[in-house]
């Protein structure tokens, strides 16, 4: 039940003339075609996913992340110094015990003053 397809023969002079016409078209419009191709490549290099604009955005993100890393490293250094002082400095341990835990030495009295109320804005 297969149908045979008819083959169409194109005369040689038509095939040659169409190839000649295409070559002539390319010769006439080569500058336009190359200009359009160059313009498309230029647009792609500027606005494409890996273009100049995307690269600039990525560089800005990298700089922001570097700043965040610097802040976190400074915070880590400060916390490491606090940990070291709590391990080795008895005065730091005593300060934490007094201020945050409300502890005192035997015979000392602790006086806690109430916080001053914030003034309410009047209209």
What does this entry look like structurally?
The protein is mainly alpha-helical. The protein folds into two domains: 14-47; 50-103. Helix content is 67%, strand content 0%. It contains three helices and no strands. It is rod-shaped, with a radius of gyration of 41 Å. The mean pLDDT is 85.
Task: Report a brief summary of the structure.
The protein is mainly alpha-helical and 123 residues long. Helices cover 67% and strands 0% of the residues.
What class, by secondary structure content?
A: mainly alpha
In what range is the share of β-strand residues?
Answer: under 5%
The amount of helix comes to 55-70%
Query: What is the count of β-strands?
Result: 0
Main sheet specs: none
Query: Mean of residue pLDDT?
Result: 85
- Overall tally of structural domains: 2
> Radius of gyration, Cα only, in angstroms?
41 Å
Annotation field: number of helices: 3
Shape: rod-shaped
Unreliable sequence segments: none
Oligomer: single chain
Order of helices and strands: HHH
How far apart, in Å, are the first and last alpha carbons?
A: 97 Å
Topology record:
Layout lengths: L11 H36 L4 H37 L1 H10 L24
Features:
rod-shaped; mainly alpha; 123 residues; 3 helices; single chain
């Amino acid at each position: 039940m297969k149908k045979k397809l008819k083959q169409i023969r194109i005369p040689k002079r038509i095939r040659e003339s169409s190839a000649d016409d295409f070559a002539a078209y390319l010769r006439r419009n080569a500058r336009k075609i190359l200009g359009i191709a160059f313009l498309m490549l230029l647009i792609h290099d500027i606005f494409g996913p890996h273009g100049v604009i995307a690269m600039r955005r990525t560089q800005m993100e990298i700089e922001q992340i570097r700043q965040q890393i610097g802040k976190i490293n400074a915070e880590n250094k400060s916390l490491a110094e606090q940990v070291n002082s709590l391990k080795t400095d008895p005065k730091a341990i005593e300060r934490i015990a007094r201020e945050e835990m409300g502890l005192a030495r035997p015979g000392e009295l602790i006086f806690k003053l109430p916080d001053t109320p914030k003034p309410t804005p009047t209209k």
